[in-house]
Amino acid sequence: MAKVREYLDMLEVYLENLKEVVSPLVNIEEFTGDASKLFATQHLLQICIQILIGMALKIVSLKGLKTPKEYRELAEIFEKQGALTSEESKIFRKMIGFRNLMVQVYPRVDPKIVFHIAKNEAERDLRMVASKLAQFAEKTQHHN
Predict the structure, then answer these.
(1) Per 3-state DSSP, what percentage of the chain is helix, strand, and coil (rounded to 5)?
(2) Which helix (H) or strand (E) holds 66?
(3) What is the rounded distance in angstroms from the CA atom of residue 105 to the CA atom of residue 22?
(4) Looking at the predicted structure, is the pLDDT value of residue 118 above 80?
(5) 3-state secondary structure of 11
(6) What angle do the packed helices 2-22 and 35-63 form, to 10 degrees?
(7) Can you list the domains of the chain with their CATH numbers?
(8) CB 128 within 8 A of CB 122
(9) pLDDT per position as a tens digit, 5-51
(10) Alpha helices, DSSP H only, in 23-143?
(11) How far apart are CA 46 and CA 100, in angstroms?
């Protein structure tokens, strides 16, 4: 569980950094008008999602679960284990897909989508999935 705690602590640091960048922004024009804010936000979102993926992979390893061939399979694994509901699993899959998009087609990711996710969804959704995975890791740890 100590390793999972490290992932949670890292996530908090990067979520705070993300909040510092996007909280003061009132509208999309402020966001797209400052390339450094756009690039910082994209990078921080990518790191936050990668931390969550790393945490999920660590829990898979600790629990001896089936190792996924692709990151998006993590959502299904944790849904089957009862750690995530169907809706939570869908959110996790979307996060992973967004991260993949940013890594593979970085320059073509619509800044409006980045802004919307960063302002309205990222913190809530990342914390929710991280919390559910941590609870699962802790709960199953006590049963082993």
Answers:
(1) 80, 0, 20
(2) none
(3) 22
(4) yes
(5) helix
(6) 160
(7) 2-143 (1.20.120.580)
(8) no
(9) 999 999 999 999 999 999 999 999 999 999 999 999 999 999 999 99
(10) 28-32, 35-63, 73-80, 86-104, 111-116, 122-143
(11) 9
